[in-house]
Amino acid sequence: MSDYKKRIADILLEEKLEAMGAVLIEGPKACGKTTTAEQQAKSVLYMDDPASIQQNLQLAETNVKRLLQGDTPRLIDEWQIAPQIWDAVRFETDHRKGDGLFMLTGSAVPADDSKIHHTGAGRFAWLTMRPMTLWESGESSGEVSLKSLFSMPDKVDGGSSLKMEDIAYVICRGGWPQSLYKKTQKAALRQATEYFEAITRSDISRVDGVGRDEFRAKRLMRSYARLQGAMASIPTIVEDMKTNETEGISDETVVSYIKALKKIFVIEDMPAWNPNLRSKTAIRTSDTRYFVDPSFAIAALGIGPNDLLNDLETMGLLFETLCVRDLRVYAEANDGNVFHYRDKSGLECDAVIHLRNGNYGLVEIKLGGETRIEEGANNLNDLESKIDTTKMKKPSFKMVLTAVGQYAYMRADGVMVVPIGCLKD
Predict the structure, then answer these.
(1) pTM (2 decimals)?
(2) Distance (Å, rounded) from C-alpha 339 to C-alpha 295?
């Protein structure tokens, strides 16, 4: 495809194909999994092609090896509708004894995992794809790379042209590849709204064959939208939903809905970070609630860019969701993960980027403004002072990630201020 724009996942996929026999690419619908895999595939099987789906399902039951025949890497798209493909690929990978043989893409966890008898360890690599970052969609200048912050933390320089109005728009539009090609902003914004409708009307039930109420799913997603970035318990979510529930709802029901949304990669909560501290401090270990993309929250709340500009508190919460999305992609490109920190004293850190080699960076997320930046910098310095550097490394960097601001710069206290509009992997 001549107009295909390379993404961070392209490089990760290439690396994983070189190292393993098969790669499983997971992520939400419409984030670009199939298109990314197609760039490196030598043959393709679309399992859910209406013209051949019944034939494909029959073959999966009676002659699954036939579905695996073709030039490699062979892409099997939406493989999860026939879960037995997993073991067949694992077996074939074992016996061909090569790397880069298969790519499996899926926008849901298999509903029937009873047909999967092997974990895939040693044969499969996993790649999680998320909606596009601002660097990938062309809104970030990319002058500050996360990699450079770990390798040269004393040197930070870059510029951003994004205004508050731009940030409000990209929060609402989300990182869906197809939205970038719409002729108008109105059409681009509708992409997330239609996705939200599909999730609540059908996807949340189809994922595991359990019937779920459309309007209850919408109320749950609205509650999740209001609780972005919060360590909200299930009872807290239930209580929030009760204001619009005409009948009682149990904790178990909410857990079922959340599990279904995780299976279709709509929800991606953030685990807690547990560092070595100088003194005994109780660390909160609950996950922080997040959608995989801020546009889900926007669609659930039924709001748009102008609503965000008129309610900066809500905009701040959803800007955090956007930053977490981008940081997760950038961290994965650097062999890392993203966590959050909060202790019993209330000290928080919005994001801790922890690499496999033990290096880590501390990040506070703020819309901007001197007061908010100062508050974020103080939090980062307070947390650093609590870390026992005799038992673990000191942070590679401390960063306040902002929505607006012309330039990235280093403060006198060692905290860097970086607009999201100049960050990349």
Answers:
(1) 0.95
(2) 21
- Inter-residue contact 42 to 73 (CB < 8 Å): yes
CA distances from 328 to 8, 100, 293 (A): 11, 25, 11
What are 64-113's pLDDT values in tens digits?
Answer: 999 999 999 999 999 999 999 999 999 999 898 789 999 999 988 886 66
The partner residues of 416 in beta bridges, in order of sequence, read 399, 410
Q: What angle do CA 330, 191, 311 make, to 5 degrees?
A: 75
Element (H, E) at 53: helix 53-62
> What CA–CA distance (Å, rounded) separates 10 from 177?
14
What pLDDT digit, counting tens, does each position of 181-209 carry?
A: 888 999 999 999 999 999 999 999 999 99
Residue 174 amino acid letter: G
Task: Report d(CA 68, CA 94) in Å as an integer.
Answer: 14
Q: Which residues does residue 401 pair with via DSSP β-bridges, in sequence order?
A: 365, 418
Mapped onto helix, strand or coil, the DSSP state of residue 289 is coil
Give the count of beta carbons closer than 10 Å to the beta carbon of residue 370: 7
DSSP letter at 233 equals: -
User: In terms of DSSP H, where are the helices of 289-398?
Assistant: 294-301, 305-309, 312-333, 370-386
The CA–CA distances, whole Å, from 147 to 56, 241, 255, 332, 425 equal 43, 41, 37, 11, 6
Instruction: Give CA–CA dist 287/342, Å, rounded.
Output: 10
* Region(s) of the chain under CATH 3.40.50.300: 8-128
On whether the CB atoms of residues 156 and 402 are closer than 8 A, the answer is no
- Contact criterion met (CB below 8 Å) for 277 and 387: yes
Residue 364's nearest CA partner among 284, 286, 297, 418 is 418
Instruction: Name the CATH topology of 8-128.
Output: Rossmann fold (3.40.50)
Tell me how far apart the alpha carbons of residues 198 and 186 are, in angstroms, rounded to a whole number.
19
